[in-house]
Write a structure and sequence with these properties.
two-stranded antiparallel ribbon; alpha+beta; 3-stranded antiparallel β-sheet; 36% helix; elongated
Length: 201
């Protein structure tokens, strides 16, 4: 009877996938419901230290001054309490099977400095069109879009899209300025007039 069962198992295994794999070259998929291990998103972590305070086994260490976040995976019990307590949702449980480790040591991750928002320069405004409704609409748009919309509106009204540049008294320079966009022409004219005034002194 025992030989019959053994033979049945042997023959059955010929038509099934093997139960084992060539670990670590091959890895099986994580079983459903596996909690996994804790990972941190350094782009959103603010190093508040709440995860360290809530960890029941003291597996997490946060060094705000040194800007490091560390976890001892061998000490972690995978309860997920730190994940639920993180105010920025920077911690998640990764259900994948972790790679083998040759040393029992915590994983230390450096958290980069938060990007500082550069102060915006003085907001540019477009020249008024003389139409209150259109001017109110242009004021709500970004500068580049407002310039294009104003130019189209002024062209439709049969008016020049940009105010004219005051002549410099030099025919060649005036002809050159007439071909340039308004803003660039203003800068070129200012530089030209400054140079003329300096030469006349």
């Amino acid at each position: 009877m025992g030989g019959f069962k053994l033979g049945k198992m042997t023959l059955g295994s010929l038509f099934k996938q093997p139960e084992t794999c060539l670990y670590p070259l091959e890895q099986k998929k994580a079983p459903a419901g596996r909690k996994g291990f804790v990972i941190v998103d350094v782009q959103t972590c603010i190093l508040c230290g709440i995860c360290m305070k809530r960890c029941p086994c003291g597996a997490i260490e946060v060094d705000k001054k040194g800007r490091t976040w560390a976890i001892n995976h061998f000490q972690c019990v995978q309860c997920g309490y730190c994940v639920s307590e993180c105010p920025k949702k920077s911690l998640v449980m990764n259900p994948d099977i972790p790679h083998i480790s040759t040393k029992i040591e915590p994983e230390v991750i450096t958290v980069p400095e938060p990007k500082k928002e550069e102060p915006e320069g003085e907001a540019k405004t477009v020249e008024p069109t003389g139409d209150p409704d259109m001017d109110a609409k242009l004021a709500k748009l970004p500068y580049d879009k407002a310039v294009k919309l104003r130019a189209a509106f002024m062209a439709k009204q049969g008016k020049p899209a940009e105010p004219s540049i005051e002549p410099t008294g030099d025919p060649d320079m005036d002809a050159k300025l007439a071909k340039l966009p308004y803003e660039k022409a203003v800068k070129v004219r200012a530089a030209f007039m400054a140079k003329q005034n300096k030469e006349s002194e």
